[in-house]
Design a protein that fits this description.
By secondary structure, the chain is an alpha/beta fold. It is about 40% helix and about 15% strand. It has 15 helices and 16 strands. The chain is globular.
Length: about 450
């Protein structure tokens, strides 16, 4: 590959840009070695320090990594290439079970909430210099966090859970630091980690959350942060239980100084209690998103954590967007108050669909998981073949490779939000046919 794509440039920035262009175009593939620094410096007629600076820039941008005696190589999933498997186009007439989003029927109406928020805004518009967080939202969020056993801490507001996690990691870590991540885990977050120049350290997950021994190994290997989905884990539906949380807190106690980041996007759509690990961490943050419970376009998450971490996040936020719209915050508060107590009903609706599909698959000898949330994780012998056969049968599902960072077996993710009771048996039949040698039947 290097012979096909000569690296060019006289300055460090030019050399780095040349490599990034090659990676983005596919001329340098994931895992491809870069020339030794002295060799490339001689080839380009520059000082070896210039090449060293270029390689350092590439490492910080998440494009390459140092591989010890093997030298510098393009990362297995560099930021400048698509980490995810290409998604098949969903033709007309095919049921799309790939989105991972909520059932619109279960979302609250927003018009009255925004009207009340706008009326309050008209009476007292927000001005430059006002507090970035609506006091009512902060008080309501903090009261619920207290009830859930989350340690005391200031409240900030970000544009969704992923924005919160990006800001926390960027504030506390530096390029090259390792982050312990769920495997399988949320594909967008797995893309974010190398985009920040960080190195993923995968750990395993079962229905009760992260496996303590696997987390311990990741932290012992040098990971400086641990990111955990508290409930409705994407893609497996795992939720951290009380006994598992106790064991994980003991792991964290053995690794003081590790940054803990908890993602509670399942708030409002699950009836499993939150079992936070934050009491065992000195540096921590928890993001509680509104997207799954109240609507993806709300793009708002409440963030709490230790005082220093939250202050760092808000300080950097002031230099960029400044704050999340207070009008928007007030509307979310109106919805949040109005939806108090709705979580069990919403959770039961998703749970009925998940459990029905899991039972139907089990009756056909197909293992599947989905303890909470809106997804079912189905083990298959060949996910590429399964995805293609299901698409042909009229069902679009997501290949499991999108959610894996450390390898593992084949699986597909099925979002149950669009399903009705009459869909379960036909879908289970289609999955059974897709994982066998027989062609899947189509249900119109």
């Amino acid at each position: 590959m290097l012979e096909e794509y000569p690296i060019t440039g006289r300055r460090a920035a030019e050399i780095a840009q040349s490599v990034e262009r090659a990676v983005g175009a596919g001329s340098l593939e994931p895992g491809a070695p870069l020339p030794p620094m002295r060799e490339l410096a001689a080839r380009l007629g520059v000082n070896p320090h210039t090449v060293a600076a270029a390689y350092r820039t590439l490492r910080e941008r998440g494009v390459v990594e140092s591989a010890g005696r093997r030298g510098t190589r393009v990362r297995p999933r560099p930021v400048t290439t698509a980490r995810e498997m290409p998604m098949p186009e969903v033709p007309p007439g095919v049921r799309d079970l790939t989105k991972g989003g909520p059932d619109p029927v279960l979302l609250p109406p927003l018009s009255e909430a925004f009207a009340r928020a706008a009326a309050a805004y008209d009476a007292r518009p927000v001005e430059y210099g006002d507090a970035p967080v609506d006091p009512g939202l902060a008080a309501h969020a903090r009261a619920e966090l207290d009830a859930d056993g989350v340690p005391a801490g200031p409240v900030a507001v970000t544009s969704g859970a992923l924005d919160a996690m990006e800001r926390v990691l960027a504030a506390r870590l530096r390029p090259g630091d390792a982050v312990a991540v769920e495997d399988p885990g949320w594909s967008s977050f797995l893309d974010l980690v190398p985009a920040l120049g960080l190195v993923p350290a995968p750990f395993a997950v079962d229905d009760e959350g992260p496996l303590p021994e696997s987390v311990d190994r990741a932290l012992a290997s040098g990971a400086r942060a641990l990111v955990v989905t508290s409930r409705a884990q994407n893609p497996t539906g795992a939720a951290v239980t009380g006994p598992r949380a106790k064991r994980l807190r003991a792991v964290l106690a053995r690794h003081p100084g590790v940054l803990l980041v908890e993602d509670d996007h399942g708030h409002g759509i699950v009836d499993e209690p939150l079992c936070s690990l934050a009491p065992a961490a000195e540096r921590w943050a928890l993001a509680r998103s509104t997207s799954k419970a109240y609507g993806p376009d709300l793009r708002l998450a409440v963030l709490t954590g230790d005082a220093v971490t939250v202050d760092l996040v808000e300080g950097r936020q002031r230099l960029g967007p400044g704050w999340v719209s207070r009008l928007h915050q007030r509307a979310v508060l109106e919805v949040w108050r109005a939806r108090a107590g709705a979580a069990p009903t919403v959770a039961a609706s998703y749970g009925h669909r998940r459990n029905a599909l899991i039972r139907a698959l089990a009756a056909r000898g197909i293992p599947a998981r989905g303890r909470t949330g809106m997804n079912v994780w189905v083990t298959v012998p060949d996910e590429t073949a399964a995805v293609a056969r299901l698409l042909h049968a009229g069902w679009a599902v997501t290949p499991g490779a999108r959610y894996r960072s450390g390898g593992g077996g084949h699986a597909v993710r099925i979002t149950v939000s669009p399903l009705t009771a009459v869909d379960i048996e036909p879908l289970a039949d289609a999955v059974a046919a897709a994982v066998s040698s027989a062609p899947a039947r189509r249900y119109d």
